[in-house]
Amino acid sequence: MRQTINGSDLRRLIISAAASIEINKQKLNELNVFPVPDGDTGTNMSMTINAAAGDLRKAEDPDLEKAAAMAASAMLRGARGNSGVILSLLFRGISKKLKGATVCDGVLWANALQEGVDAAYKAVMKPAEGTILTVARLAAAKACQAAEENNYIEFVHDAAIEEARVALANTVNQNPVLKKAGVVDAGGKGWLLVLEAMAAALRGEDIIVPEGGAGDVKEQADFADFDTEDITFTYCTEFIISRENDMDPEKLRDFLSSLGDSLVLVDDEEIIKVHVHTNDPGKALHEAMDYGSFVTVKIENMRLQHTEKVMSEQELAPKIAEPEKPIGVVTVCAGDGLKEVFSNLGVDGVISGGQTMNPSTQDILEVVNTVPAETVFVLPNNKNIIMAAEQVNALTPKNVIVIPSKTVPQGVTAMLSFNPDGSVEENTEAMTEVLSTVDTMQITYAARNSDFDGYDIHEGDYLAIYGSALFGTSKDIKVLLRTLAEKVRDEGKEFVTIYYGQDIQEKHAKKAADLFAQICPDADVNLICGGQPVYYYLISAE
User: Could you tell me which of 70, 43, 53 has the C-alpha nearest to residue 308?
Assistant: First the structure.
């Protein structure tokens, strides 16, 4: 049994923990998934701890203080999402307690775990029970008790794991949302995985990501009775500010606490890092500007998986194309067919993304900067991307105007109204006005059982969405296509375009088009291979 660890040992422990989170990230994601698969806890925790693992792999034989400090600094700057920020705070506290030490025994390790818990609780405005905080707190308390009995680090760490398992199992009873879903807390599960992977490394059984990646490991969860209306604040807003004055971060904390929830604010001598859920990210960013310059900014809907930094201290200044024309357009879409449609309509750049893989502000900025135009219109084509797109204008010398298209069909219709020879004002008005003239229908699938918008949904059901509302569910996709076609007929639409996705064969798509043509004899029906993921069909009706 190991009595102490040094810097090289801690390096191995953290790299092992990062590998375990990477291997299990999809399992963690599945613990908080909605009918459309879009959980992100595992992704956020993996990106956070792997930021530290990446730096530690480059470090040759670091001492204990250096290894802990490197990990804490990398995680703070690489933290993604609420769970990622809290994970970084746990390691920040560990680093603080290990400062000045050359080896770590059981007592010091127990105190370090407790210091991490204290740092996390201090930063979280309204700590909730049944979360990663609960699991970490109880595990640390058990470690402190064990250290009084035996000063070996492995003994103390094993005691922390034992308590963490009990605490995690109880999270389902502590959090109403978890109780509805019938699952344990994803962040708490992630912290248990970290502790267990560290224990494996202590025994010389380091966790390693297998060749070919982590695979796709899923865990069953019953989301019956879960309602998305439980989400009070829609947008997850994160940013890092480079400290440039002596203003008290506590004043910023007080302001943000009145603006939303899930607030985490942590600062050191160089930066202030903020995570908050709010319905008005603009106000949060505007207030934060008084404290210094933005290093990174990220805004996303709570359902997003993929997140990206806006600006990075390590990145070079972006290359910006010199204007060769007054106006250009970039658009967001996924699928080769949809990209070709927009290219044929004259867009200058296509940003890869859409539902479940929303591009970051940085992703949009990079494409905008490649357009050789003074003014660049952006078509987000997804309501969850609009806010991120709106941040681009402040990050480039180009004039960026976001046309608030919420679907791909709206984006296509906007491009049909685009006049490259028209003025900025004329195009802004024309492209915005036509958005309301097109109805969008989408067919996707349910990943879990759920009660959503009054529908009793079962895993594997097809879901039809009309506009922004759930329109129907069925085990037979043809049933949904027929009901949508009847809706189009009853609405008197004259033009129908069907974009079929990457999982639909052309022969089946042709049958869908024939069905619409039969039910809507007065409409002009067109079929296009969109190649989009997630949605089997995107249907436009005007």
Answer: 43
**pLDDT exceeds 90 at position 258:** no
Bridge partner residues of 227 (DSSP): none
**38 pLDDT more than 60:** no
**pLDDT value at position 297?**
84
User: Which one, of 187, 254, 184, 250, lies nearest residue 40 by Cα?
Assistant: 187
pLDDT tens readout for residues 302-313:
544 333 333 333
Please choose, from the candidates 313, 245, 257, the residue with its C-alpha nearest in 3D space to the C-alpha of residue 284.
Answer: 257
Q: Where are the beta strands (DSSP E) in 315-436?
A: 325-333, 349-352, 373-379, 399-402
Backbone phi, then psi, for 264, in 5-degree steps?
Answer: -130, 120
Residue 6 has pLDDT above 60, yes or no: yes
Output the six-digit token pair for 160.
């922390």
Condensed to tens digits (0 to 9), the pLDDT of residues 175-190 reads: 777 777 778 888 999 9
Strands lying side by side in the sheet with 292-301: 260-267, 271-278, 235-243, 292-301
Per DSSP (E only), the strands in 26-138 are: none
φ/ψ of 225, rounded to 5, equals 70, 5
Q: Is the pLDDT confidence value at 455 over 90?
A: no
At 107 the three-state DSSP class reads: helix
User: For position 263, what pLDDT does the model report?
Assistant: 83
Interacting residues of 451 by C-beta distance below 8 A, sequence separation 6+ = 224, 225, 226, 227, 457
Mean pLDDT value across residues 138-149: 96
Q: Residue 4: what pLDDT?
A: 96
26's tokens: 């999809």
Give backbone dihedrals phi and psi of 440, rounded to 5 degrees, phi first: -115, 130
Query: 485 CB contacts (<8 Å, ≥6 apart)?
Result: 515, 516, 519, 520
Q: Residue 203, SS3?
A: coil
Task: Classify residue 318 by its DSSP letter.
Answer: P
* Closest CA relative to residue 128, chosen from 185, 88, 80: 185
Give 262-286 as a 3 state SS string: EEEEEECCCEEEEEEEECCHHHHHH
Token pair 């129908």 is at which residue?
A: 496
Residue 100: Cβ within 10 Å count: 7
173 closest CA partner among 161, 186, 182, 162: 182
| Sheet containing strand 495-500, strands side by side | 469-474, 462-466, 439-445, 537-541, 495-500, 524-529
